[in-house]
Amino acid sequence: MLTDRFGRIHDYLRISVTDNCNFRCNYCMPEECHSFMKQAQLMTSEEIEALAKIFVKHGVRKIRLTGGEPLVRKDFDEILQRLSVLGVELLITTNGSLVHRHIEALKKAGVTSVNVSLDSLKGNTFEHITKRNAFEQVWSNILLLLENDFRVKINAVAIRGSIEHELVDFIELTRNKPLHVRFIEFMPFTGNSWHKNKVITAQELLANVQEQYDIIKLKDEPHATASKYKAIGFEGTFAFITTMSKQFCGECNRLRLTAEGKIKNCLFGKDELDLLSALRNGDGIEELIFKSVQLKHAAMGNQFEKGYQLTNVNHVINRSMVSIGG
């Protein structure tokens, strides 16, 4: 088992298959001209499978494929198929724009749950955020996933000054559809113009929801990052991911593999070890994985020990979100 020095067992691996994306969301991708990795830098489908097998050997039971946008990879269906035989729960996070091209591959691989990033339900606002006129396609694909019996979670980044205007609209999605909407507190990454004043906390959002709806608190799963609720009589649920206001690091069971094969033991951590180079050179992989797990800090990569309100974002060392995979 991959157990760190704080006794946390890591059985969940998030694999970024590319740092490329067909959207340009400003909270994810740096504002300056962004260059993506060259093909030779990325893990091949065979290398992804080889590394995943080692993690599974040591207790990983859940793998989530992320990007960038994972579905822009031409061999995404092959990657899915390779990982589908490992006996793990296989999940993806996507912006939803290309789902219609891969729906059969997702079903064949045994994927049952899909997270879709969607920060606005208004076409104009959606285009302003993503720099793409693609809302109708994304929404159509969300409905397609529901029609094919996938569990669909919608991830909306909550940025002060914007999310308040659509909060009720997002909750209304859960009235007659089995959708699970999750509001994610705005997190700082390289180049995303984060500021503490842009953070609207889950507590604030919850108070706004309670003004409109009668709600109940639902039981959260072990290692959950989201605190779940339900409006009484509604089919779906909503939740808050409280990364900034209420850390959940004590229950963390996640490791991350970047698109170029580096292991990150924390979303906010600066420590990375190069598994892909070791694999290509025939060097030991397992030693590096165990070393990374042991290097993991107690909370927030040891970069937010004073809380987000006292954090100088200029002193935080990390990647852009698009190059981590979330």
Index terms:
18% strand, TIM Barrel, alpha/beta, 9 helices, 326 residues, globular, single chain
Tell me about this structure.
The chain is α/β, with parallel strands linked by helices and 326 residues long. It has a single domain, classed as Alpha-Beta Barrel (TIM Barrel), CATH 3.20.20. Helices cover 28% and strands 18% of the residues. The protein contains 9 helices and 12 strands. Strands 7-8-9-6-5-4-3-2-1-10-11-12 form a 12-stranded mixed β-sheet. The longest helix is centred in the N-terminal third of the chain and has 13 residues.
Please describe the topology of this protein.
Blueprint: E1 12-16, H1 45-57, E2 62-66, H2 76-84, E3 89-94, H3 99-108, E4 113-117, H4 123-130, H5 135-147, E5 151-158, H6 167-176, E6 179-185, H7 202-212, E7 215-217, E8 226-231, E9 237-241, E10 254-257, E11 262-264, E12 272-274, H8 275-281, H9 286-295
Parallel strand pairs: 1-2, 1-10, 2-3, 3-4, 4-5, 5-6, 6-9
Antiparallel strand pairs: 7-8, 8-9, 10-11, 11-12
Helix pairs in contact: 1-2
